[in-house]
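agent: user wants the full assembly modeled, not chains individually. Plan: 1) parse entity lines 2) check alphabet per entity 3) run joint structure prediction 4) return tokens. Steps 1-2 passed, two entities, 642 residues total. Proceeding.
--- entities ---
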Amino acid sequence: MTTSESNGDSESLKSPTDREARLRAILETSVEGIITIDDRGMIRSMNPSAEQIFGYLESDAIGQNVRLLMPAPYRDEHDGYLKTYQQTGEKKIIGSGRDVVGQRKDGTTFPMHLSVSEVTISTGRIFTGFVYDLSERFAAEHNLRRLAAIVEGSYDAITLQQFDGTILEWNHGAERMYGYLADEAIGMNILKIVPEFRRRESQEFRERVSRGEELDTLDTERITKNGRLIDVWITATVLHGQDGRPLAVATTERDVSDRKRVQEELERRVEERTKELREAHDELIRKERLATIGLLAGGVAHEIRNPLGVIRNAAYFLRQVTDQVDPDVRESFDEIQRALAASNHIVGELMDYARDPQPNQTCFSADAAVDNALRSLKFESKISVDRALQSGLHCLGDPDQVERILINLINNAIQAMPSGGTLSIGCRSDQGAVTIEVRDTGVGISGEHTSKVFDPLFTGKAGGIGLGLPISKRYAELNQGAIDVESTLNQGSTFRLTLPRKIQPAGEST
Amino acid sequence: MSEAPRILIVDDEPGVVQSLRRIMHRLGYDVTTAVNGTDAIEVAGEVKGDGMLMDIRMPGMNGLETSQRTRIDCPDAFVCFMTCHSELMDEAATERRSHVLSKPVNVELMCELIARETARTGRNLCEDGRIA
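--- prediction returned ---
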């Protein structure tokens, strides 16, 4: 080429050699495969792109029928097309383009776009085919279709959202999960499915995603179209434009309600079981402790009785032989006597606690037991006693032990009212049982202590060693009964003793 | 009254024996002591007591058996059993001329009992059992 194109002079275009050179250059460098055939279908030329597309060298192809480049069944039909066109002018492809299938030298086929133009030259008609290999595009499209199918068919909700929350895409999984059809959802703001109390979290999440923070998943809740709250697990990815700017957020959202429920159920059960085990363990420790205390109590009580007896004897002797006119001496003996009585009481409690007296089961009347207990105690005038006893209630149990329980409970009530108050005592029938209630208006028991009052050695009182209530509880249990307490600090306590009721056969006198 | 009533005190705890002995002696009784069942039987054979103050729970022979065997020699003797809780308490209570007092013994009550028992046989020192 002698003429420079950069000159841009129109003269060069006029030179036939230059034109031919230019055309050839175009042919040689075109990315489209360009093939010319004559009116009999014989290949006349093939540019390098066509060579590459079909795998034939131009020199091999020239003179061969263009059918060579087509797979069956088109291969056999091509001659017919040409003939029909020449006879009738009916165009199948000439002047237009369409996607067809080509065949390479190695026999493989591929999609291609073919457009054909017809040129009449001095030697007759030639047809020029422009071929564009669609393999890659098809592969890409196939890939896209496959991805789209995956997205569409996913059971997870897959969405695309603008940074302001406007929904751009909404797959079938999202329709199923949230109840909104794609038509409804697209254009809607995602906040519509975010419950009020999760909005802040949701917005922060989106902001963090949009800032490009490494993310991340979010365990949150969503609200469906019909108002159901579901637990979802969300992963989010930012989609960027070609310029690198973030465009939108793609999310995959999974309904984990069931999983969460199962997990919560499992956790609940584990917790429950742990609690049971802990309670069983505590109960075992408590029982062991009680047994140890019982053994110790019995041993101590037994051992201390003799020295106490000696003191008592010695004090008695001294009092008998000493001049008792001196008030100090008399007072001293009284002190010894009181101390002995107190010690004796403690020893008695310890002994009672240490042994398991088998109840002497008989039938006795509840109000009589209460009256007996009341009679055996002295009440100061600052304590008013309020009796509300239903008569004719018969219990089964050991009346001595029950009276002992009642004495303990009443004593307890009296001690809870150091500055006076009302002791209410009542009995009533209660679903096949008899309930005896001892209520005081005293100091009460603080909440954390109510469960401990029946434990040995727990005492809020200055005197005593706190075995009265444990003994009462044990006696109640020995008599197939139960004892419990309700209390409010500074208002008073109510102890309830429940015993099995003996239903008197008709006609038998109570 | 020819001679003072004879009281046999049996307890494995020397302190108890001594403190009771002192009271009984002061009251005027003729007191003999023993610290176990075997000793008690042996002593009882010699002194033929009018009454016994008997601990129930003792090493070796218990108080109940001791009293029963002692009574071979002095069948009319009364017995005051002294005990902490014991499963033998009920059985002891059914013994003839017996009383069961729980430890620590109310000594005043015991003295009254002894006075009453000795009065029944006309061998009492005083009506109320108090130290004069």
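agent: reporting back. DSSP finds 15 helices and 17 strands in chain A. The interface with chain B takes residues 301-302, 305-314, 316-317, 320-321, 340, 344, 347, 351, 355 of chain A (CB under 8 Å).
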